[in-house]
């Protein structure tokens, strides 16, 4: 019975942290401002079927990041739609 004594406080603190996080979601921008670019590169990779060269736009390759993350994202897009 002694082991259960601190659980209500722990649940309360967890709920409080969750509520604070939920209320503050819109108060700051996304940390990584390049997420849309990475998503577009992965979409192009899946659409064109070119798994070697990551393309950002027509005729504009994107070499700013290793391709493993793009391969995983493009594969997920092909699997899940």
Automatic annotation (TrEMBL):
Single GO MF annotation: pentosyltransferase activity
**Coiled coil regions in record:** none
One GO location term (cellular component): plasma membrane
Where is this protein localized, as stated in its record? Cell membrane
**Source species, domain of life:** Bacteria
Which species expresses this protein natively?
Answer: Pseudomonas aeruginosa
Tell me the Gene Ontology biological-process terms attached to this UniProt entry.
Answer: lipopolysaccharide biosynthetic process; response to iron(III) ion
Q: Respond yes or no to whether keyword Membrane is given for this record.
A: yes
**Protein's UniProt name:** Glycosyltransferase family 39 protein
Q: Which UniProt keywords apply?
A: Cell membrane, Glycosyltransferase, Membrane, Transferase, Transmembrane, Transmembrane helix
């Amino acid at each position: 019975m002694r082991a259960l004594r601190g659980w209500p406080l722990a649940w309360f603190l967890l709920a409080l942290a969750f509520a604070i996080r939920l209320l503050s979601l819109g108060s700051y921008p996304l940390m990584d401002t390049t997420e849309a670019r990475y998503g577009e590169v992965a979409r192009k990779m899946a659409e064109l079927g070119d798994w070697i060269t990551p393309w950002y736009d027509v005729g504009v390759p994107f070499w700013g990041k290793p391709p493993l993350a793009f391969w995983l994202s493009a594969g997920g897009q092909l699997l899940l739609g």
